What we know:
Number of helices: 16
Radius of gyration: 28 Å
Largest sheet: 5 strands, parallel
Helix content: 40-55%
Oligomer: single chain
Low-confidence stretches: none
Strand order of the largest sheet: 2-3-4-1-5
Bound molecules: adenosine-5'-diphosphate, magnesium ion
Number of domains: 3
CATH topology of the largest domain: Rossmann fold
Order of helices and strands: HHEHEHHEHEHEHHHHHHEHHEEH
Shape: elongated
Amino acid sequence: MTTDYFEDLLKKPSIFIDEKALDINFIPEEMPHREKELTILSQLFLTLITNPNSISRKILITGRTGIGKTATVKVFGNMLIEASNKRDVQINYVHINCRKERTSYKVLIRIIHSLDKAFPKRGYSAQDLLEVLTEYLNIHDLHILIVLDELSYLIQNGGDLIYSLTRINDDMMKAQQRISIIGIVRDISCINSLDVSTMSTLQRNILKFEKYTKTQIFDIMKYRARLSLKENTISDEILEMVAESVFKVGDIRYGLNLLWKASKFAESRNLKYLNSECIRFGNQDLVSFSTQDAIKYLSIQKLIFLLSIIKILKKTEKSKISISEILNLYNILCENLGLKPRSYSQLWNYLNEFEKENIIVIIVKSEAIKGRKAFIEIQDIPLAKFERIINQTLKTKGIRL
Length: 401
Ligand SMILES: Nc1ncnc2c1ncn2[C@@H]1O[C@H](COP(=O)(O)OP(=O)(O)O)[C@@H](O)[C@H]1O
Ligand SMILES: [Mg+2]
C-alpha cells in the first residue's frame, strides 16, 4: 500500500488563515496606534487634493527601527491615492528604499519607472533624468509624492539629488508645484551632512514616531495574529508573553517572526493552539552565550532553584508562576540532595539575580484582595532545552538528579 503524503499533510490541522500576513513586507489595512501619525500626515498633505499643485510638501519622519514608519507611510500613500482618485486629482506615489537604490541615478530611474514603465534604463545622466521627470509631470499634469525611505543611505552619495528634488520650482514664481517629498530616517543627525538650505527645508516639518509601549505592542500583535491565525489559536495570555519579548527588542518585525516561528512549531506538534512553549521556541532556538555563561557560574543552590522553576513551568504549562508554586518541588529536590533549603528572602535574592542575568522575567501584578503578587516567567529559552543545560551543569559539579 502506498502512503499519500499529500493527503496526510492536508489532514493536519493548520493554525494559519494567511501566513503572508506575518510577512514583514505585508502592508496591513490598519495601523493600530499610528492613527495620530496618519492624521497629521493627512492634514499636512490635504492641500494636494483641495488645491492641486499649489504647494510642495517636504517632511521628514524620524524614529527607531521597527516601529512602523515605512508601513504607516505606505498605508498613508494608499489613502492619498484613493482620496485623489475620487476627486479626479492626479497624484502619484512612489516609495523608494534608498538602502537599495543608493545613487541619485538609481533613485531617479525608479521614480521615472513608476510613471513610465517603458522608459529606457540607460543613456541618460542624472541631470537629464531630472529634466525628464519634471517634463513628464508637466505634460501629464501630475503631482508626485516621492518617499525616500532610509534616506541616510542616499545622503552619502546623493546629497545633490536631495537638494535638486527639494528645490525644483522654488526659483520659479507661480510655477506649478509637482513634487512632494517624505524623507524617512532613523536618526535626525544624519541630515547634518546635507547643505544648509536642504537641511533647513527638511527640518521645517519633522514628524517623530515614538516607540510603542508594551500595551500598544500587545494590540498590534493581536491585530496581526487576527489577520494571520485562525480564531482561538492564540490567547491573550500568550499574546502578553509575545508582547513582553517584543517590547524588550523594540522591533515589531521581531514579533512577526516570533509569531510565525511559534505557529509553525505548534503545527509541527499537531497543536490546535499556541502555548507558552511555542513562544519560548520561537524566541530562540539557541541559548545565547551570555545566558550559558551566567548558568555556568551559578552555585548548586541557585541551579536547583532554577531547575525547580523550569520543571514547574513545564509541568503546569502556564506562562508564568508564582514563587509559592515552586517551593514544594524545590524543598523535595533539596531534601533528596541533602541540601538545606534557602529562606524565602534568599530565594528572592536569587530571583533578582536571575532577572539581572536575563534568565527570567519577574512580573508584578496587583490583585484586588491579596495585594501585589510576583510571577516568574521564562521567555527566551525552550524549557526542555533549558532543563538539559542545567542538568549538564549540575553534572559537572558532581550532582546527579
Ligand atoms: N501599528 C502597527 N500595526 C500593524 N503592524 C505594524 C505596526 N507597526 C509596525 N508594524 C509592522 O511591523 C513591521 C515593521 O514596521 P516598519 O514600518 O517596517 O518599521 P520601520 O520602518 O519603522 O523600521 C512591518 O511589518 C509593519 O507592518
Ligand atoms: Mg522602514
